[in-house]
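Q: Convert this sequence to structure tokens.
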Amino acid sequence: SEALKVVLKKQDLLVSISSSGKSLNIINAVKIAKLKGSRVITFSGFDALNPLRQLGDLNFWIDKFDYGLVEMGHFFILHSFTDLYNKLLNKQILVRAIENAQENQKH
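A:
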């Protein structure tokens, strides 16, 4: 978490993951991000009142007390996000290519 004091900027987004929500290094990283004005997304499990879940701007909590199940839940959510991001990115690239092709046809 100490490195974030140097490299993290206000416009950055910190994604923090701790199955139990009690990892001190992760909690300290989130506190640094909040002090710098950065947004924070948390991924945690176990106790609904875990410390990490209390700190995020957007929180994904898995209601299980099993590391494997919590980690699989986090994996599923993160995998879905990256798939969505890639689909949106590819759509933007396709739209730009079509626009460029249409523009080239005019000339």
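Helices lie at 4-7, 24-36, 67-106.
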